[in-house]
Amino acid sequence: MGTIFNIIILGVIVWFLYQRFVPVKRIKNINAAELKAELNNKGNKQFIDVRTPNEYRGNHIKDFKNIPLNELGKRSQELSKDKEVVVICQSGLRSSKASKALKKLGFKEVTNVKGGMSSWH
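Structure (tokenized):
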């Protein structure tokens, strides 16, 4: 009985680690230099900054709308699922979480800015 329980626990741990660390399919990652090109070719894109309102007020990129990560679920209807969503935060950690959440909410094209505002010059 103990062996079966251990196998189940191991399976749950492996599944959790897989879900946590394996990138969600079809989330594009770009760096700050690539973001500059995206901003020059806005086209069918929407830009969101998932930092806190205070962080956003302190410094932000002009075309980015502030939707803090903790409000993303209830404010996702402000975004179009038919347009690409480009997501930024301070370091890339919150934007990565936001990107995964957007994919789970049914957004088809999601792009995460690696390095976030810390890498923006």
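The mean pLDDT is 90. The longest strand covers residues 45-49.
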